[in-house]
Amino acid sequence: MITLDHVTYAYPGDGAGRPALRDLSLSIDEGELALVVGPSGSGKSTFLRCLNGLIPHFYGGTLKGRIDVAGHDPVALSPQGMAFVVGMVFQDPETQFVTERVEDELAFGMENQALPPALMRKRVEEVLDQLTIAHLRDRHISTLSGGEKQRVAIASVLTLHPEVLVLDEPTSQLDPQSAEEVLVAIRRLNEDLGLTVILAEHRLERVVQFVDRVLWLPGSDDQALLDQPRSVLAQVPLAPPLVDLAKRQGWQPLPLTVKEARRFVPRSQRSAARSAAAEAATLLNTGQEQRGASSALCAEQVTFRYPDGNDAVHAVNLALQAGEVVALMGRNGSGKTTLIKLLAGLLKPAGGRVLVRRREPRASGAGGKKRLDSGDYLDTRDASTDQIVQVAGYVPQNPGVLLFKDTLLEELAFTRQGHQMPADEAADRRLLASLGLAAEAERYPRDLSTGQRQRAALAAILVADPQILLLDEPTRGLDYQQKEALVAILLDLRRQGRAVLLATHDVELVARCADRVVLMGDGEIVVAGPTRQVMTGSLVFTSQINKLYRDPAFLVVEDVPLSGHPEGESTHGIAIHPSQHRR
Questions:
Q1: Domain that residue 135 falls in
Q2: Band of the pLDDT at 313, cuts 50, 70, 90?
Q3: How is the chain split among helix, strand and coil, in percent rounded to 5?
Q4: Would you call 78 exposed, middle or buried from its count of C-beta atoms within 10 A (0-12, 13-18, 19+)?
Q5: pTM of the predicted model, to two decimals?
Q6: Is residue 360's pLDDT more than 80?
Q7: Of 69, 345, 347, 547, which residue is 20 to 30 A from 122 by alpha carbon distance?
Q8: How many domains does the chain contain in total?
C-alpha cells in the first residue's frame, strides 16, 4: 500500500549534511492504522508530506529514493492528483479551512475537482453521518469547538474518497474528552471503511492503544523502527507515563491502558473511591479569591464578550502569586485562551479589571522599606502594551506570530533591544541550549518543526526575564524529553519567585509542575485548588498514574514505590508521605 525505498530528503538550504529524512525504507499495509512517533524535529511531518506530494512539489528541497502510495508516485503525480489518493489534515485544522459554513467546507474540495453536483450532495451526506457531525452542517466554523473543527477538517478530505488518511498531531490542541472523540472517529473510519490511516502524535498516552503498528523515527543516524506498539515502546526512549512505570516495575507484557495496568496493581494498593463530600472539601471556590501581598497578577470580576454578544469570560476572580505555577484547564471553548489574553493585556475587559504588579515596588515608609499599594500595579485597561510586556511575557498557541527574524539568535537579540538590555550572545546560546535548540541557533525560525518553534518562542520571551510568564498550550509539538526540560525551566522560575500561568490540555505536564489547578467551564472558574486534590477524582483532567491508583499520593511515575523496595520508597529512593508532596 505504502512503500518507501531508501528515501532521503533535505529541505532547501539545509544541504546534504542535514537531511530531515535519511535512507528511510518501510512498508505499510492496506487498512493499517499506523502511528508515527519520534523526538521533535525527527522528520515526522516531513514523512507525512512525502506521502501526498507536498514534498517536493510545494516545499522543494532534495529528494532521493522511491515512494509508492497505493500504486501512485507522489513525485510524478501532481498534488491535485494525489488529493484523490491521500487526504491530509494538518496540525492546525484552521489553516486549511477556506469557507465559513461546515457544509460549504465539505463541498469545497469536490467543487475544485469539478465533481457532479448530485455526487457532491451524496458524499457530503455520507461524511456528515460517518463523523456524526450532521448537526453541525449549517454552523459557522468559527463557532465550533476544537474537537468539532478537527472532525470537520477530517470530513472535508474524506469527501474526495482518498485511499489513505494522513493526520499530523490531530489532538495537539484538544482537551482530553475532545481528543478521545476524534480518535474514536478515526478508529471507526479505519475499521468500518478499511481506510488506511497514518497519524503523527506526541501524546502517546492518548493514541497508542488505538493503533496497529508504530513507526519510530529517531531523528539521527539510527535506524527507523516499524513494529507492534509494545515492541517499539520497549526499545525506544520515549514512552507515555504508564509504559514508563511498567518498564521501571518490570511489568510484562507492557500495559498500554489503565485497564491493562490494573492487572499488576492489587486492589489493596488502589485508593477507594472518595465520597462526594470529601472531594468537595478539597476544592476551593475561587469566587472570593483576593489580591494578596505576594500577588503578581490578579483578575477582579473580569468579564469579556465578543461581538456576537456572548460572554467568553464572566465575572472571573483569579490571583496569581509570585513563586507559583498555576494550570488553567478546561474543555475547548471554556474561555482559557480569552482569559489568558485578558491577563496579558491583549484584550481589554468589558467589566472588572486586571492588575499586573510592576517589576519593583516603590520604596516608602521608614527606612525606605518596600511595600505594595495600588500604585504598584498596572491596570491593563489603561496601561500600554509596552508597559505590560516589561513585566509579563506571553507565548500564544501559535508561536509563529512571535518569530520574524532570520535566525533564532537574532530573535533573542531583538527582544533584548526592545527591553533596553545589553547584547549577550553567550547567554542567548546557553538559553537556547537549555531548550534543546543549540544546533538551531542560526537557523531560520519558520523552517523549524512545530515543537522547535514553540521552544524558540519561549526562548524569545524568557530572554527578557519576565516576572510573570503566561503560556498558552506550551507543550504543543514537544516530545516527552522536551517536556521534562520545560518542567525543569518552569520549576526553576518558580524557585526564583516568578509567577507562571499555563493554559493547557496536557494533564501530564500539569501533574509534574503545577502547584494549583484552575478548572474553567463556560467562561467561569468552576473549581480550583491544589493540583493533587483537584486531579484526584477527576474522570478527565488527571494523569495516567492517578487514574491507575486514584490516590492523591500517586500523580506521577516517581511517586510510585518500586516493586521489591521497602514500603514507602519511591522510584527515586525518597520516602513517600502525602504531606510532603510538592503540591
A1: 2-227
A2: very high
A3: 40, 20, 40
A4: exposed
A5: 0.84
A6: no
A7: 69
A8: 2
